Each structure stands twice: as C-alpha cells, then as structure tokens.
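input
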Amino acid sequence: MELRKRDYHVERPLMNQEQLEELGCWTSAARTYQWRTWFQCSRARAQALLFQHLPVLAWLPRYSLRDWLLGDLLAGLSVAIMQLPQGLAYALLAGLPPVFGLYSSFYPVFIYFLFGTSRHISVGTFAVMSVMVGSVTESLAPDENFLQGANSTVDEAARDGVRVQLASTLSVLVGLFQVGLGLVRFGFVVTYLSEPLVRGYTTAASVQVFISQLKYVFGLQLSSRSGPLSLIYTVLEVCWKLPQSVVGTVVTALVAGVALVLVKLLNDKLRRYLPMPIPGELLTLIGATGISYGVGLKPRFGVDVVGNIPAGLVPPAAPSPQLFTSLLGYAFTIAVVGFAIAISLGKIFALRHGYRVDSNQELVALGLSNLIGGVFQCFPVSCSMSRSLVQESAGGNTQVAGAVSSLFILIIIVKLGELFRDLPKAVLAAAIIVNLKGMLMQFTDIRSLWKSNRMDLLIWLVTFVATILLNLDIGLAVAVVFSLLLVIVRTQLPRYSVLGQVPDTDIYQDVAEYSEAREVPGVKVFRSSATMYFANAELYSDALKQRCGVDVDHLISQKKKRLRKQEQKLKRLRKSLQKQTAASEGASVSIHVNTSVRDMESNNMEDSKAKASTGKELEDTAASGQEDAKAPDGSTLKALGLPQPHFHSLVLDLGALSFVDTVCIKSLKNIFRDFREIEVEVYMAACHTPVVAQLEAGNFFDASISKQHLFASVHDAVLFALQHPRSGPASPVLMTKL
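output
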C-alpha cells in the first residue's frame, strides 16, 4: 500500500522531562496488590473460581446440540480410530505392554474433557512423551535385571510389572508438578522454551523414536541403555547385529509401512472428497492381525506379536513413594515438555477459531489428567498434533469429541482388546515410524532459519545435538541454559549507532545506514539497540567513547597531568618567593608589591634595586599563577594547550532502555562526569516513564544532573543543545520547524 505524501506540521515548545510531567500532569501509578483479592470471599467470586477451575460447567450448559453434536461425534469416532493403533504402538515405545497404551488413551482424555480450556487438542499418548517414558523405564528397569535360568531368558512378566509401576508413579509425579505449577500460576515457564528450541527438541526426539523402533523392525534383542551417548551405542549395536535380523519380521514391517504410506498419500489426494480420512492405521492393524492369526507368523516365521491383552479395566493402585527420589528429575522434565507441546498446539487452534486458552488452567488440566491417570496405571501423556488436526478437520467443535473418543476406547478395552493378541509388534513399529514424518520434516527448519535468523538456527542445532548425544532430559536442560545464555550474549553485542537527522524531519537514524542522514554540527547523538544493565554497561561506555571519535580517557589523563604540572610549578614559585623574601628581610630590604620602590638609604643602591626588581617579578608571577588557577578558563583544554572535541553536546537516545539497575545508573553518571571533563555537555532523550521512575529511585538525579537534562525526544535535546552550547558560539541550526 503506497502512502500519500502529506505535510506533517507540529508546533510545540522544547520539552524536557520536568516540563513534560507538568504538562501531562504526571502522577505515579497506584500499586495494585492482586494477592488481596485471593482472600476475598463472595458468592460471585466462588462461582468464578468454580468456572475457572472446572470449565466444563461454563460451556456445557450452552452446548448447541443442533450445531455441534454431529461434528463432535464424527470427530470423536475419527480420533478413536487413530487413538487405538497409536495407543498400542506408543505403549510399546514406552517399554510397556500395549494394553497400557489403551488405558492412557481413556482416563486422561476424559479428565481433560472436564478441566481443559482448549476445544480442539486431542489429549492422549504422544511419541515424544512415550520415548521419554521409555528412556526412564529402560534405564531403571533394564532387561539385564530380570534374567533367569541358565539360558539367560528375560522374565517379561516381572520386568513389565516393575516398568508399569515406574511409569504410573512417574505419571503421578508429573501430574503433581503440573498441578502445583498451575495453581501458583507458573504457566509462563513455557515461555523459556522458544519455538526453535521446541522444534529442535522434538526433531531429536523423533530421531530417538526412530532408532528405538529398529529392534522391532529387524526382530533384534538389544541391550538396554540410558544416559549420554546411549543413542550412538544403540545405533552401533543395531549395525553390529543386522546379520541376526528375522526375515519374517523385516518383511512384515516393510509391507505394513508401504501400506500405511499409500493410504496417507491417498488421503492427501482425496482430502476434498472424503468426509473423514481413511483410517489407514486401523485397517492395517486389523489386516495384520488377521494375517498373523491365519498364517501363524509367530510359530512359523518367528515374528514377535503383542501377546495377551487382558479385557476390562485394572483397579487403581497407589504410587510407590520409594521411587519418588529417583524419578523427580525425569518427572519435572516430562512435565515441562508435555505442557509446552500442549499449550503451543492449544494456542494455535485458539487463534485460528477465535477463543482464549488459559495457560495456567491448561497446566492444571494436563496435570490432573496425568495424576489421576497414574493412579489407574497410565503413563504420562500430552497431546498429539496429528490427532488434533484430524479432530479439527472432521468437524470437532468442543471437547465433547474427546469424551466420545474416550468412550470408544473404553468399549475396545472392555470387549475388543483381546482380539489384537496376534498383532505383530513390527506393524506397530511401522505405524510409529510412518507417523514420524511430520516431525522429521522439521529438518527443513535448518534451511529456513539459515535464511531468516541464524541465532535461532544455532539454538535449533545445539538443542538437536545435545538431545541426541546427552539424552532427552539432559539435552533439554542444556538447550534451555544455552538459549538463555544466548539472550544475555545478544544483549552484550547490540548495535551501537551514531544518529543523524533525516533532512526536513525530526527523525534521527543511523548515519551508516541512511546515506541522507546528516550529523548535526556540534552535537553527537548516540543510540544502543539493547537496554543497558550490569552485563553490558561497560561495553556501552566503551562503544560510546569509540564512536564519538575522541579518546576521552586519554584527554582526561592529559588534562589531569597538565593541571598537576601547573600546580607543581606554582608550588615551586611560591617556595622560591618565600626564600627570596626571607633573604631580602635578612638584608633589611623592604619589598612592597604593586607599589613603586622607594629611595634606599644604603650605600649599595644598585644591588638593592636589582633584588627588589627580582622579588617583584617573582611575586607577580606567583600572583598571576594564582589568578589563573582561580579563573574559570584556567583549567580549560584550550588554556592547557590540549585539543578540543569537535562537538560541544552529547545526546544519549535511551528509548531502548526497558529497565535500569545500579550498575547502569553508575555508568550513566560516569558518562556525565567524563564528558563534562572534556567540556561536552550530556543530555538524555526518549526515556520511558518506568525508567525515569527507576532513575529517581536510584538517586540518579542530583544537583549536577536534573530532569532538565532529560528530554521528551531526541529532536528536543538536539535543539536545546544547539541553543545552549557549553562553550563557543552556537552552531548553525539545520533544523526545520515541524
């Protein structure tokens, strides 16, 4: 859109901070103590708290059956069809029996229906969360701990029992962390996980998921590993044992993978014409189960199958308190990652459909889902992007779709789950790998970030490499620390600019970037692109002195040196005068300063006149030295024979300051002191009101620096500096009256 060229006229007086506050009737904003409202009790407040923490009571009475019910039913059925195979597969990814994936697809989904605020996200099993849980279960309960007999076979029943207890206890701890953080309104913690960090982390997690499924694709028995470099060792072991692969398992995985890819391509082609996507995963699972049962893949070809799936729900079980200490670190990491994924997806859908998601309540809802789910033998869950997109595209309008999908899963758990006992694990692994496409496509971020923002690319790469090499928990910690350190480093390396006036405007821009911008003669305008605080205050001062084109520190040292020499010379003259005076008094010669020498009554008249003349000369020199020391121009650069700066005023554009600390205040005071030493007056401009208040609280303003040195804009400061130069004649005014 092309802007019309119009004249812009503003006439107002020059305005410093004092005049601005007087004109605008500035008063400090009254402080509000929000904590006081926490202890207020009324019926309206009780109702508001109830609706805030149990949102279903707010939106369910207004639910439109005619407009929303059909869409929610179709969306719930579509999500349930996806949830079934993903639940079975992701339980395998977590190192648990597949039926526990079905439990994790039922209880948390229904709890989120009651407490969640997002209408479109699909809560349940998710690959990243499952692989994080799997890293915990396999590290704390490795296969080596359950070897039995001389043939060193693994007692799978005992191993699975311990791992289920670990996963459910971990889910309870994750839920406690999330609920606690939500109740203290700590939802903002997710802001420290930037988008490049989350995308790099999920990409690395998808690589870990892919590697972890290779043992099911090739039918290999691998050692359980955890900790730094465990992924590298796993890849090496897979490569070492490839000759031991089970051919039947590899063929089963390849056929299932090709079938899933073809169905996904068909869904993409026919998206416009299909009311809901073709359930490729469900059809593949049903077909693979039938073929496995009919052909006998396990006894004939050695293909590993899911095994017995008990019908019905398991009774609740209390978590194991003795496991808390070993699981605390893992639980906090999983809690933060799960919430970050859920809230990022929730905000995307909320923005798209025009409603608001409460991040703190989302934290509570997700925490209750994991807490109650953990009591019922579930492992930690979050939300799935693929299922959420299906729920939205199938016509889902509210979390009624989630409730419908959980009821379908309940029917499968109670009646149909046992039918999948002959399902090959290689098919589940193929389904997991095919569903990783979306996350693996995030490798294209490298190219886009290289073009747009290389600092974000650095965060992405460090997060990815750290997560791959150091595992998921330590990798996330390294990524967060690195991104925060990078923020600090970027504030230490801002862009420093000397500003010039754009012709016929009151706008000042960097003279290095704007060829028409001209520095105002006699006035130097300096700006930093970042706020000034303890980490970069010294760098700010150094850059200012460098950009001004004057060696300020050298000039000050030379000035002090010459003043010191002048004082020493004066002292020597005084001592010489005192000695001469004492010698004259000893010879009975009277010397009167500033009068004529009277007649001497001595035979040696010529000697007396010479001595009197010498004494008068010394005293006159001393007097003149004292007058020079007292005179205002006696210590000027010009009087001392030093070069003067080519500008008489310095304007600091402080518009980038968002806060100040004590180090910043001291640095600003030092700037005023140093530049005044070299006869340059300093002004500040464009400070925000909170920054001014902080300067006042920090005792920045005193007898030498007042609010009259702080101006509303750079243009005001420049005009004032031109009208009131510190020394020398006023420079020609190049401004236009705007």
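quick obs: The CA atoms of residues 226 and 416 lie 35 Å apart.
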